[in-house]
């Protein structure tokens, strides 16, 4: 439990007041600030030599890039995180490990409580906040766990804001990935249990998800929202709403499942564009009361919206209690339903995908080990 580490934290002035970062203006014109600090130029590379421990929000200044090298471990104290300012970027360069169980080259973001009893406790820290105007963020071979919001991606008109490849987000007390009017491309992305929504594509934007798994089996409290929620409208006041075009939300060879009957949701404002498409994906949506039968967004027989989707068939995840969303050969409904040629050619475990009949989700199916240890 005791490790030598690099500590980053806000300064205090002579009166003991903690350094803050301005993040906006409230309705009365007062500045909103959070405890935090801007990283200096010589602090903008996180290596794998020692773990990093962050108190408050470590902010990347405008025009700078935070680079996180393969094998780095970043720990956050309560109410802490990373904030990337306008025109700044974050590059997380995790790499495949020679031993998948060792994960020595993966980058991990998590809380600073290292006791085993805190290993799967949600909401231990804040978020990685990629603020409005920040751009060109890239995360590869990365795990983010036990935050309030795993990744928060605010808008940036016209640019690719976020690329995710071989990324896992687990145990977020609110949302796994919250993207607002963003441009996101993701492949081999897994988002596990979240207290509200695993994936929120909010207030329009442009999104592509290939071979992704969204599996929400949250049990810490009552959950009313689906695993995946897509909308083009946001309420910002009692009678005030913002709208933005949903230019594209394409899901290919994905799994959207969980312990609720309806694990996908759409909120459309007709005055803005609302374009989405699901191909060769496994989706849970059981409308037992017929509440949505007249809503065209849930017409799963419409090939312009849903093509070759499998509804309400068990993906047979390996262990949902432990967040293990691998699927089993022969018994998983996601086995072999994928569309050939959808990237990437290798799954999250580094296994080659079938050329003719790949599986849906981030993992190719495997034979699960016998729980009694028998071959």
Rg over CA atoms, rounded to whole Å, is: 21 Å
CA distance, first residue to last residue: 36 Å
Total strand count, please? 30
The number of helices is 0
SSE sequence, one letter per element: EEEEEEEEEEEEEEEEEEEEEEEEEEEEEE
The helix-and-strand class reads mainly beta
Main pleated sheet = 26 strands, mixed
CA-based shape: globular
Helix content bin: under 10%
Report the mean per-residue pLDDT as an integer.
94
| Proportion of strand residues | 35-45%
Residue runs with pLDDT of under 50 for 5 or more positions = none
Describe the 3D structure.
It contains no helices and 30 strands. The chain has strands spanning 6-8, 20-25, 31-38, 45-46, 52-54, 57-60, 65-68, 73-76, 81-84, 89-93, 107-111, 125-130, 137-145, 147-153, 162-170, 175-191, 197-210, 213-216, 228-231, 233-237, 240-243, 246-252, 255-258, 264-267, 277-279, 282-283, 306-307, 310-311, 317-319, 324-327. The strands form three sheets. The chain has a 26-stranded mixed β-sheet that branches. The mean pLDDT is 94.
């Amino acid at each position: 439990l005791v490790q030598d580490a690099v500590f980053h934290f806000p300064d205090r002035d002579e009166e003991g007041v903690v350094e803050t970062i301005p993040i906006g203006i409230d309705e009365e014109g007062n500045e909103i600030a959070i405890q935090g600090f801007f990283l200096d130029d010589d602090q903008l590379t996180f290596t794998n030599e020692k773990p990093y421990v962050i108190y408050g929000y470590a902010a990347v200044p405008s025009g700078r890039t935070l680079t996180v090298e393969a094998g780095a471990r970043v720990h956050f104290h309560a109410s802490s995180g990373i904030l990337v300012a306008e025109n700044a970027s974050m590059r997380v360069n995790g790499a495949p490990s020679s031993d998948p169980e060792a994960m020595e080259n993966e980058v991990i973001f998590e809380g600073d409580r290292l006791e085993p009893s805190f290993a799967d406790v949600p909401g231990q820290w804040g978020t990685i906040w990629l603020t409005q105007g920040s751009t060109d963020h890239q995360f590869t071979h990365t795990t983010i766990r036990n935050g309030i919001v795993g990744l928060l991606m605010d808008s940036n008109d016209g640019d690719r804001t976020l690329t995710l490849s071989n990324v896992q987000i687990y145990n977020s007390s609110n949302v796994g990935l919250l993207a607002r009017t963003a441009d996101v491309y993701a492949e081999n992305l897994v988002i596990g249990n979240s207290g509200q929504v695993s994936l929120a594509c909010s207030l329009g934007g442009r999104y592509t998800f290939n071979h992704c798994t969204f599996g929400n089996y949250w049990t810490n409290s009552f959950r009313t929202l689906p695993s995946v929620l897509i909308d083009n409208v946001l309420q910002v006041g009692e009678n005030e709403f913002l709208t933005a075009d949903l230019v594209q939300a394409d899901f290919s060879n994905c799994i959207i499942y969980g312990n609720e009957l309806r694990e996908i949701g759409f909120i459309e404002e007709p005055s803005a564009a609302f374009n989405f498409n699901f191909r060769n994906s496994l989706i849970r949506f059981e409308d037992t009361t017929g509440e949505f039968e007249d809503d065209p967004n849930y017409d799963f027989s419409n090939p312009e919206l849903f093509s070759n989707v499998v509804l309400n068939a068990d993906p047979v995840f390996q262990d949902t209690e432990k967040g293990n969303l691998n699927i089993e050969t022969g018994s998983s409904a996601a086995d072999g339903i994928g569309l050939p040629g959808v990237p990437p050619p290798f799954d999250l475990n580094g296994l080659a995908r079938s050329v003719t009949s790949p599986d849906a989700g981030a993992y190719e199916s495997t034979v699960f080990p016998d729980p009694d240890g028998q071959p």
